[in-house]
Specification:
533 residues; 7-stranded antiparallel beta sheet; 21 strands; alpha+beta
Length: 533
C-alpha cells in the first residue's frame, strides 16, 4: 500500500513543504499569487488554475504564451477528467513539405500548429469554473499592463531566447523593445498582451479562434507565406478524453492518452513493479539502475508508437498489459546497462501548475510553447507568441507520428495525477522539461507513493535523465560513489548543473492528506512558489 508521508527525510534545499486547506503551486511566484487571489475571492481550484495559467503567459514568457498548447487533469470531487487542448497542424500541411530535410524546422512559421491553450482555459471555465473569465484574467492583464519584475531564472532564459530568436517575425518588437532582453529585476510591460487577454476574456475565447485576434494571426501567417489560416483556427476544439492509468504502490497513477508522452511513465512503473523495485532504497545503485533501464524501455516504445490518438496503430492500452510489461521487464539485466529497441505488443521546456481547494477539487495543468519562447513568431500588436509544436512530427511517412495536415503531433507536456488505495485523490503533480517529463513523473511516483518521501524531499532529491541509448545525465548533487557504481554497470554518465539548460525540469506537487488538507511543494532549484491558505 502507499506509504505514510515521512517529513523527516530531506535533501539539499532551503524550502519546507507548505500546508493548508487551499493550495497553488507553480513555477513563478506572481502567477501563484494570481491563483490564490481567485481562491480568496471564493473561486475554486479550476478558477485558480486558469488564473495562474493566464498569468504565466505574462510573467514566464520563456516557457509559455497565449499561443501555447495545454493539457489538464481535474478531480471534480468525485471523479477524474482529462482535457487535451493541444492544437492540430494546418489542414494544408502535407508529407512533402520538408522533402530533403531530416526534421521539421524548430523555428519560424513552419513550426507553428494551431495554438490550443486558450481553448483549454475556456473549456475548463465552462465545465468547472465558478468565476467569470473576465475575473480570472484580471491578474494577468494587470501584470501585462502595469509590468512585473523579471525574476532571475526567467531573465537568464530570456537573454538566451533573445540571442536565438531576435530575427524571427515580431519577436524583438514584443520581447526586446529596447533592442535587448530585459535585465533581471527590470520591470517589463506588455500592453499589447494585456489587450489580447482582455479581448479573450470578454469574448470567452471567440476572439482568438474566430474573431479579431484570429484574423490578425492568419493575416500575419499569409504575410510570411505560412499555412495557418482562419479556417484552421475556427475548426480547432479542445477534447475531453479518457485517462490511461496503472495501479502502483497500492494506489494508481493517471496520465492523459496520446498524443502526450504520459504513457511512458505508466509503462516504466509497470515494468518496475515486475522488478520488485520496492525492495530497494530510492537512492540506491540498484534502484537507480532498474529505474533507468525501465525508462529506456518505455522511451523506446514511446518513440516508435505514440502519435495523435486518431493515428495510432493499435489501442494505447496494449502497451500497458501485464503480459507485455512482464516481457519487457525480462529484458533488463540487473547488473548491466543494455541497449533496447521497441517491443511488439499483441492484442490481449513548459510551465506546470497544481491547485486544490477546501471542497476537495484538484487540478493538474500544464501549458507550453515547447522550446523556450517557441517558434519565435510573435503576432504584431497582440503579444501573442506562437509555439513550435510542429517540430514534434517526424518525416518518416510510415511512422504513426508522420507529418500530415489536421493532425496533432507528439507532445512532451503532461500533467500527472495519482489516486490512493481508496480511489480518492492522493496528489496532482508535474515535472517540466521536454523529454524529462515522463521520466520525472516516474521518479516522483517512486519517491512519494512507493517510499513515502514528503513532496518537497521528492522534488529536492537529485534527478537523472535518460538522454539516448546508454547516455544518462545526472544532477551535480548526485552521490559520487553512486555515479561510479552506475558507470561500472555500463551507464555512460554525464554530470550536469541542475540549472544548465533546464534539462532536469522544475517540479510541483500538491499532496492531499487523509484529513483533507494539502501539502504543497515546488522546485527549490527554480523560481517556483507554493502558496496555501
Amino acid at each position: 500500500m502507499t506509504k505514510a508521508i515521512d517529513f523527516n527525510v530531506g535533501y539539499a534545499s532551503q524550502r519546507a513543504p507548505m500546508m493548508g486547506r487551499n493550495a497553488v503551486a507553480t513555477s513563478q511566484p506572481l502567477a501563484a499569487q494570481a491563483g490564490m487571489r481567485m481562491l480568496m475571492l471564493g473561486g475554486n481550484a479550476v478558477d485558480a488554475a486558469i488564473a495562474t495559467a493566464m498569468a504565466l503567459t505574462v510573467v514566464e514568457p520563456t516557457g509559455c504564451g497565449i499561443g501555447s498548447d495545454a493539457f489538464a487533469i481535474v478531480w471534480d470531487g468525485n471523479t477524474l477528467h482529462g482535457l487535451n487542448a493541444s492544437g492540430r497542424s494546418p489542414a494544408s500541411w502535407h508529407a512533402d513539405m520538408f522533402a530533403g530535410k531530416k526534421a521539421v524546422p524548430e523555428l519560424g512559421w513552419d513550426a507553428v500548429t494551431v495554438p490550443g491553450a486558450v481553448s483549454g482555459w475556456v473549456a475548463l471555465a465552462e465545465r468547472f469554473g465558478s468565476l467569470p473569465l473576465t475575473t480570472l484574467a484580471q491578474p494577468a492583464i494587470e501584470y501585462a499592463r502595469n509590468g512585473f519584475p523579471v525574476s532571475p531564472l526567467i531573465g537568464h532564459l530570456w537573454q538566451r531566447g533573445y540571442r536565438k530568436l531576435k530575427d524571427q517575425p515580431g519577436f524583438s518588437a514584443c520581447f526586446a523593445p529596447q533592442g535587448r532582453a530585459p535585465a533581471v529585476g527590470e520591470i517589463f510591460r506588455n500592453p499589447a498582451q494585456a489587450r489580447s487577454l482582455k479581448l479573450i476574456a470578454q469574448t470567452n475565447g471567440e476572439a482568438f479562434y474566430r474573431g479579431e485576434l484570429a484574423q490578425k494571426i492568419a493575416a500575419f501567417a499569409r504575410e510570411h507565406g505560412a499555412h495557418l489560416s482562419e479556417a484552421d483556427l475556427a475548426n480547432h476544439k479542445a477534447d475531453w478524453v479518457t485517462l490511461l492509468s496503472r495501479e502502483f504502490a497500492g494506489g494508481s497513477v493517471h496520465e492523459l492518452p496520446p498524443n502526450g508522452q504520459g504513457i511512458a511513465t505508466l509503462i516504466a512503473l509497470g515494468i518496475l513493479e515486475q522488478c520488485d523495485i520496492s525492495r530497494h532504497h530510492p537512492d540506491s545503485v540498484q534502484s537507480l539502475h532498474l529505474s533507468i533501464e525501465a525508462m529506456k524501455l518505455a522511451l523506446a516504445d514511446l518513440d516508435r508508437y505514440v502519435a495523435d490518438e486518431d493515428h495510432l496503430e493499435f489501442a494505447a492500452e496494449r502497451l500497458l498489459s501485464d503480459d507485455y510489461l512482464k516481457s519487457r521487464a525480462a529484458l533488463i539485466n540487473p547488473d548491466k546497462a543494455s541497449d533496447f529497441v521497441y517491443g511488439e505488443p499483441t492484442q490481449s521546456g513548459t510551465v506546470y501548475l497544481s491547485t486544490a481547494d477546501a471542497s476537495g477539487m484538484m487540478v493538474s495543468f500544464i501549458q507550453s510553447n515547447y522550446m523556450g519562447f517557441g517558434s519565435g513568431v510573435v503576432v504584431p500588436d497582440t503579444g501573442i507568441s506562437l509555439q513550435n509544436r510542429g517540430c514534434g512530427f517526424v518525416l518518416d511517412p510510415k511512422h504513426p507520428n508522420a507529418l500530415a495536415g489536421g493532425k496533432r503531433p507528439l507532445h512532451t507536456i503532461i500533467p500527472g495525477f495519482a489516486l490512493g488505495a481508496d480511489g480518492k485523490p492522493l496528489m496532482s503533480f508535474g515535472v517540466m522539461g521536454g523529454p524529462m517529463q515522463a521520466q520525472g513523473h516516474m521518479q516522483m511516483a517512486l519517491r512519494i507513493m512507493l517510499h513515502g518521501q514528503n513532496p518537497q524531499a521528492a522534488i529536492d532529491a537529485p534527478r537523472w535523465r535518460v538522454v539516448q541509448g546508454r547516455d544518462v545525465s545526472v544532477e551535480a548533487t548526485f552521490d559520487r560513489n553512486v555515479i561510479a557504481a552506475l558507470r561500472e554497470r555500463g551507464h555512460q554518465i554525464t554530470v550536469e548543473d541542475p540549472l544548465a539548460g533546464y534539462n532536469f525540469g522544475g517540479a510541483q506537487v500538491v499532496y492531499r492528506m487523509a484529513e483533507g488538507h494539502y501539502v504543497a511543494a515546488t522546485e527549490s532549484r527554480k523560481d517556483g512558489q507554493a502558496l496555501v491558505s
